[in-house]
From TrEMBL:
Catalytic residue list: E235
Domain GH10 span(s) in chain numbering: 1-339
Signal peptide from the UniProt entry: none
Catalysed reactions, semicolon-separated: Endohydrolysis of (1->4)-beta-D-xylosidic linkages in xylans
Protein name as annotated: Beta-xylanase
Keyword Hydrolase attributed: yes
Family statement: Belongs to the glycosyl hydrolase 10 (cellulase F) family.
MF (Gene Ontology): endo-1,4-beta-xylanase activity
Length: 340
């Protein structure tokens, strides 16, 4: 029966989704059958970030992450760890560290404890997330500011040591854009030239309807694969609402008469069709390069629980995924499936 066939059954690369802790707990398993039918690899949306795994300095809390691993194992799915080194969602005490040695010890302990705890349990780790500025230079994060650029190679070295069985990835957004891509290539080569292991690169893939940079995406797949890396799309969603402004601008825009939630009562058919054709064209590119792509992960199961309903403005109605708020496949899903 066609109903029983999902994305994971028809594509050669893994098809994944981000899951929140609620979605794997008994009390909110509404998406459960959809998850099992469509996906074969999971990324914890939040619970393997440092603020959750090491909420107090030196005190690790693996309970939620372990629960996700168990859920995946029970259902024959893999798990990707996200993420060991990231400037965002750091525990508050770590954000306040001013001393180089103290911050270095925090990073080292974190990688050591987390990587070894999950060694053999996850297929890979986003070792470093979002370390680049848009111009391709290293992001002026607390990691760079306190530790200098060696933190990049140090992190990969530690990860390789404490989780020898996991693949190791660099993950970032907009690294399909030329300047940032050049920066990512420099970063990757730096790790490789140091004789360290890096197995893959994750292009996050937070794109916008009607503006998906198809040509740059294809070039990026080719260029990253040429470095000997597995190429992954790790956080795919295509949103339909304007997002290129910060929280501070919100009230200004509202005063200026802009409706920041234009599709509250439904998505116009024209946008729905554009979304479907954007997804179709994306997967056509992935299919063309399926010898290079190992995984495509969506950042959420269905529109109702996408983070894009809450960012950069809370309380919006966004439509970035292949399934709607009633867990039903959208036109985009059918377009993607019909490629096979
Ligand atoms: C997001 C989650 O989806 C939200 O629930 C959370 O509040 C903030 O982080 N890039 C990443 C992800 O690497 O970890 C982010 O996830 C989305 C952007």
């Amino acid at each position: 029966q066609k109903q029983e066939v999902g994305l994971k059954d028809v594509f050669d690369y893994q098809i994944g989704t981000a899951l929140s802790i609620q979605q794997i707990q008994e009390k909110d398993r509404k998406a459960d059958s959809l998850v099992k039918r469509q996906f074969n690899v999971l990324t914890p949306e939040n619970i393997m970030k440092s603020m959750f795994l090491q909420p107090e300095r030196g005190k690790f809390d693996f309970a939620a992450g372990d629960q996700l691993i168990q859920y995946a194992e029970k259902n024959g799915m893999k798990v990707v760890g996200h993420t060991l080194v990231w400037h965002s969602q750091l525990p508050p005490y770590a954000q306040q560290i001013k001393d180089k040695e103290e911050f270095k010890a925090f990073m080292e302990d974190h990688i050591k404890e987390v990587a070894s705890h999950y060694d053999g349990k996850v297929q890979g780790w986003d070792v470093i997330n979002e370390a680049l500025e848009e111009d391709g230079s290293l992001r002026k994060s607390i990691f760079l500011n306190l530790l200098g650029e060696d933190y990049i190679t140090d992190a990969f070295k530690l990860a390789a040591k404490y989780t020898p069985s996991s693949e190791l990835y660099y993950n970032d957004y907009n690294i399909e854009q030329p300047a940032k891509r050049a920066g990512a290539i420099r970063l990757i080569k730096k790790v490789q030239d140091a004789g360290l292991r890096i197995d893959g690169v994750g292009i996050q893939g937070h794109w916008m309807v009607g503006k998906v940079p198809f040509e740059e995406i294809e070039k990026s797949i080719i260029e990253y694969a040429a470095l000997g890396l597995k190429v992954m799309i790790t956080e795919l969603d295509i949103e339909v609402l304007p997002r290129n402004f910060t929280g501070a601008e919100v009230s200004k825009r509202i005063e200026g008469g802009e409706n920041l939630n234009p599709y509250k009562d439904g998505l116009p058919d024209s946008v729905q069709q554009q979304l479907a054709s954007d997804y179709e064209r994306l997967f056509q590119i992935f299919e063309k390069h399926k010898d290079k792509i190992t995984r495509v992960t969506f950042w959420g199961v269905h529109d109702g629980q996408s983070w894009l309903n809450g960012w950069p403005v809370p309380g919006r109605t966004n439509y970035p995924l292949l399934f709607d708020r009633n867990y039903q496949p959208k036109p985009a899903y059918h377009k993607v499936m019909s490629l096979k």
